[in-house]
Description:
By secondary structure, the protein is mainly β. It folds into 3 domains: 101 residues, Immunoglobulin-like (Sandwich); 101 residues, Sandwich (Immunoglobulin-like), CATH 2.60.40; 145 residues, L,D-transpeptidase catalytic domain-like (Beta Barrel). The chain is elongated. The chain has a 5-stranded antiparallel sheet with strand order 1-2-4-7-6. Strands 20-19-18-26-21 form a 5-stranded mixed sheet, with no helix packed on it. Strands 3-9-8-5 form a 4-stranded mixed sheet, with no helix packed on it. The relative contact order is 0.11.
Amino acid sequence: MSRSSHIPVRIHARIHARIHARFRARFRAAAVAVLVAPLAACSSSASSGAPAASATPSPDDRPVTVSVTPTGEQVPAGEPVRVTVSGGRLTSVTVTDAEGHRLAGKAAADGRSWVSDRNAVPGTAYEVTAATRSAGGTARNARAAFTTAKADKVNKVDWRPGTGTTVGVAQPISLVFDHPVKNRAEVEKQLRITTSNDTEGSWGWMRDWSGRDRVDWRPRTYWKPGTKVTLKAELNGTDSGPGGWFVRDYTTAFTIGDEQIAKVDLDRHQLALVRDGETIRRIPVSGGTPGGDKRSWRGTAVLMSKEGTINMNSETVGLADAYDKMVDHSMRLTWSGMYAHAAPWNARHLGRANRSSGCIGMSDADAAWFYGQVRPGDPFEITGKDTKGVVAPGNGFGAWNLSWAEWQRMSALR
């Protein structure tokens, strides 16, 4: 046969090879589209672009089936994201929102499931990427997407102490909620305390003086000076119940200062400031008038805030028109209106008799000095026979008037 007679055969072979190569490429692309794209509906078989030896995969290299929940548009929030596979293992899972924030999670030991550490939060679009490996060793990626419905009601939090502060040894961590919290156990699980010395403590739920729900964390005993404390309230995506959803996290970090205790003896009309076990100064005082509503509270109160010069009006605490005046060096001890402050108008009774309207009064000079020494979180241990009762947990920071066992029982997780 002549040389020219072989040319059409070679051209035909090359054309056949190109057509076969294009067919294989289109087959692979079609396989990916069929197996990966349906994962947006949260259940699919995911495949890579590797060439298939035959139309029927081998028993060890069959497509991995991947499922993601939740699925769809405007789904309820408050549940973790779950990814499961059959026919292979998960090698990684990434869940991100529209702003690129990741939802961390953990895979099971067998590699067949993954669950996010946190719940999906309201009003958020999520994308899920799952990397898998089949029994035959083939790596594949699959993707899904879903959105959560917006919160119809939002619950917010007011917290103490503020971040970066130094506080006294009796300062609790206190969270007050805008709306009632029915799912208290679920909320408490999201509140994480870390300390520099593994301080033992517990949460306790109560009704705040304002009437709102509140949860405090206090140590078993007073804090050790120098302790570093951090609260991470990972509440975003937690349903508080009819009170609404939390849509953000909260955090605060603070330090415990020197041990300072104000020991107030109303029977002896005296206040002693004790620092690290040593009495620094004794101050003559006058407490609440015996025999009626003007009596002082007893027990352990905690200095809530130093408010300086303020107007005090007895009508705000249910005492008719007993007083209405500007008061210097005011230090709040309860929400119900008990303060330590300067009381020069009561000078003749300081150190001699209890004749105030419930507060702990002292001279201008003593009040100015004392005000400069103390800080929020310092305990006032108040004793006296004729008082109107013990400071309640929700009236300021009265948690220290409960035994440790009583306080632990106030946790929603006990």
